[in-house]
Amino acid sequence: MTGSPRVVIADDQALVRTGFRMILTADGIDVVAEATNGTEAIEAVRRTRPDVILMDIRMPELDGLEATRRILTGADHEPHVIILTTFDLDRYVYAALSAGAAGFLLKDITPEHLVAAVRMVRFGDALLAPAITRRLVERFTRHEPHATAIHRDLAALTPREREVLQLLAQGLSNAELAGHLHLAEATVKTHVARILAKLGLRDRVQAVIVAYRTGLVSPTGDHQAT
């Protein structure tokens, strides 16, 4: 994948949109459209086919959560959604991650981190560390039993892949997984890729959520035997 990332900014605050546009375009990133609500965001994505969508979670008419769901289930390409929020443990952020968002950013992010985040998710990387996702899961899994969840049959995984998923859900990086399991980092990357493929997941963020929602790892840190 070459060229500059194509970005849609969806936020009901004009100052936020203007500020983000200035930051991104100054670094050579192409902002192809702006939207003030979820409905406009869906239409902008359909029209411009961006690589990345910066999506505010709280907007009028149609919020960012529902817009994210519709975009990721209906797009004819593979856009990556970054959720924008004022609160790092907003309960809607967890639901958005479950729906397939690549991660989230606080609105007071530095310009350097904003640019880096857009470029990172453009290539399919999860934006936030699994440990942060785990914190979200621990806080909201028990309190939202009827929330949209990802259900997958872990029987498709080999014992080694289940072990990798357990450790990944505890926040270990690929390098840390390699050291813990006495494997080459390239081998760990292969295991992670196979886990995502077998479970039909977009990235490591969703893998962490699945590990908790299926009971493979519990919020107390316990996990099933492999």
UniProtKB/TrEMBL annotation:
Signal peptide: none annotated. The keyword Transcription regulation applies. The keyword DNA-binding applies. Residues 150-215 form the HTH luxR-type domain. It comes from the Bacteria. Residues 6-122 form the Response regulatory domain. One of its GO terms (biological process) is phosphorelay signal transduction system. Pfam families: GerE, Response_reg. Keywords: DNA-binding, Phosphoprotein, Transcription, Transcription regulation. The modification 4-aspartylphosphate is found at D56. CDD domains: LuxR_C_like (cd06170), REC_NarL-like (cd17535). InterPro entries: CheY-like_superfamily (IPR011006), NreC/VraR/RcsB-like_REC (IPR058245), Sig_transdc_resp-reg_receiver (IPR001789), Tscrpt_reg_LuxR_C (IPR000792), WalR-like (IPR039420). GO terms for molecular function: DNA binding. This is Response regulator transcription factor. It comes from Streptomyces spongiae.
